[in-house]
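ARCHIVE CARD
CATEGORY: sequence design from structure
SOURCE FIELD: tokenized fold
FIELD CONTENT:
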């Protein structure tokens, strides 16, 4: 596999994994639905997680589209007259594929394989490729951000950083922007790559690249560096600008 095809596969994997279980709320919703006898409705999920029913329905439909949950339109037992509700329950063919409370997905296996493949490359080349892929993905993410039609340089660095943090959070990184010692940082309290990033720290370069790619599109060129990371034993990941 050449570097171009590896980069394309890596980008696709990043998108697939964050789309499925990158959001911590979606993971919680999956586990909640899995344990519920008879499945759950969007209203029940909204009450449980304190989100709007439309947001709950969005997460449930994403899980159903990925084959993790199945949908049935039915009236709850004991319910009176009225329109039946959608009930979401664990998909029958997902039960045999559970490991550590989550179904085994080919995306996870591909990411693990790519992590090992990157580990075989010289460290500098592996990090460069991973960061370049992250930048490409970050620039694509920036296109979908509210106000992204502003030309680079028309917003402050602080507002651009906040937009980046919000976008990362939407992709499962539980991120926020802060300032320490006159230095702006993006703090990630959750990594959607999980143990794969711990085993193969080079994948952290993807995070750094995503930040750089989004900032370039929203603000302009900026020096970005990884200051702290979970693979290094820190309790969170920090990218400074």
């Amino acid at each position: 596999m050449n570097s171009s095809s590896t980069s394309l596969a890596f980008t696709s994997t990043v998108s697939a994994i964050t789309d499925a279980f990158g959001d911590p709320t979606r993971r919680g919703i999956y586990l909640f639905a899995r344990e519920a006898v008879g499945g759950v409705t969007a209203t029940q999920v909204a009450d449980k997680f304190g989100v709007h029913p439309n947001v709950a329905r969005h997460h449930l439909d994403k899980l159903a589209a990925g084959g993790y949950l199945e949908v049935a339109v039915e009236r709850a037992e004991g319910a009176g007259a009225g329109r039946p509700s959608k009930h979401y329950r664990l998909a029958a063919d997902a039960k045999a594929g559970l490991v550590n409370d989550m179904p085994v997905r080919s995306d996870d296996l591909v990411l693990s394989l790519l992590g090992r493949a990157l580990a075989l490359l010289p460290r500098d080349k592996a990090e460069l490729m991973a960061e370049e892929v992250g930048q490409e993905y970050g620039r694509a993410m920036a296109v979908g951000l509210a106000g992204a039609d502003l030309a680079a340089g028309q917003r402050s660095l602080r507002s651009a950083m906040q937009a980046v943090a919000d976008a990362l959070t939407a992709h499962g990184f539980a991120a926020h922007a802060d300032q320490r010692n006159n230095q702006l940082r993006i703090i990630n309290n959750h990594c959607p790559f999980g143990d794969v990033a711990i085993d193969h720290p080079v994948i952290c370069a993807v995070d750094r690249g995503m930040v750089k790619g989004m900032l370039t599109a929203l603000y302009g060129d900026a020096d970005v560096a990884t200051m702290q990371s979970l693979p290094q034993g820190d309790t969170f990941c920090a990218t400074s600008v």
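CARD ANNOTATION: The longest strand covers residues 69-74. Residues 95-104 have pLDDT under 50 and may be disordered.
SHELF: design records, drawer C
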